[in-house]
Amino acid sequence: MKELESCKLCPHKCGVNRLEGKIGRCRCDGNIKIALASVHNYEEPCISGNNGSGTVFFSNCNLRCIYCQNYEISQCGKGKVVSIQELADVFIRQQEKNVNNINLVTPTMYVPQIIEAIKIAKNKGLNIPIVCNTNGYENVETLKKLEGYIDVYLPDLKYYSDILSKKYSGVDNYFKIAVEAIKEMKRQVRKSCV
What we know:
alpha/beta, TIM Barrel
């Protein structure tokens, strides 16, 4: 988890030592925090299919969207701390519910831990696709670490206007950063693109 010693996982690159309990702009420390793991039958139809998507909602967020429907999770940090092993077990339990995929919702702040949890879960038989469901405000370097672990990227491109991204989500250069991130996502999964 060396990346958490001077965190630059998201475009804010705030550099705090999350392993010492310091809080980054995303409101995360060195622990994994999840708010909910459930079967979501109403995600995009191609993700949910007939059996639903095995969503895992991660607590906190690197954006501060004033309109967020999950405000308690993204802004207030609602959720519980889990270990890497416990997160791997969550993935396995989701698969046991016969879902179509594991859907990681707002996972950016936890990428190093998620990668380790995926490795553990795959050794325990995880074999369904993994979806990265993101706000689009991603660091290309962090996305590159996910290559080979993510089967489907589901970015939510929120803004074209930097004026609006600053006003409603508290970030500059959203569009430029998100476009570069989406290009990287496409590069990783281009073989499966139609």
